[in-house]
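Table S2 (continued). Query chain:
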Amino acid sequence: MRALVMTDFGTPATVTDMPTPSVTRPDEVLVKVQAATLSRWDLLVLDGQMTEHLEHIFPITLGHDFAGVVVETGAEVTGFTPGDAVIGLFEVSHLHEGAIAEYVVLSTARHLAHRPGTLPPAEAATLPLAGLAAVGAVDAVAVRAGDRVLVVGATGGIGGYAVQLAASQGAHVIATGLPEDEPYLRNLGAAEILDYRTDLTLALSDRYPDGIDSLIDAVTQDPTVFAALTRHVRGGGRVASTVMVADSADLATRGIDTVNVMADLAPHGTLDRLAALAAEGTLRAPALEIFNLTDAPKAIDAMRDNHVRGKYVIRVHGTS
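Corresponding output:
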């Protein structure tokens, strides 16, 4: 089978022939992948920035979430049968297997759910990684009606889902983006937009001198920059980071609850919850940039070079 693979640090990822995986355990399913997503996480892996956190077993297939069709099931699998349309996420205990491949094998004990019938594969593939991180962040900050919630990185996949989830719970969502992103972000449910190229701390001080209730940050990797943003969260407020930079001990001195969110640590069944929200129309897929598998390396270059709105999706099998 073909897959998007990195063979070492400092070398570009390429579409390479790899052994087709097979079901070897009774709780596993083999899935023919229709679409998978490329994320900022993959860029961190390519750049060697995850070596302190995860074991790397080369070659590494990139991508963590996908939409596809079940081909084969293990003897003890219940709830899934060949032909079922599914979405899934690889949990990150080490880096080796990945989603941007023609076939994947996944345990049903992991994050696997039936694909909402209303969603094409390319849209459905964006739900697991971005959706699980977003719902984890929104749950962590315990959004309530009327809360002023700042979503940093709102134009990306995680941020876009977080905006929708927070808005659906009655929050006043403040989203970061570019001026040209305003129609897109307002359509997701944002009440106002802040240009992230300006001094966000100054803008927040001017607009919210009494502070905001919550911060959800999906992009800030610099702890100093992140700390500056948290100073605008009122005492007793709540903060969530999906890039693991929140200093819980420091923020606790101000009475601020803090969570570093990881998608794969979401409670089992959360993906079913997201699928239901998508099926009923509460959640809509973010903007998509779709590349065929053969052009996946170009998608990596595009993600590095461009302002990302929504998600980059790799079409693997069939139409998406």
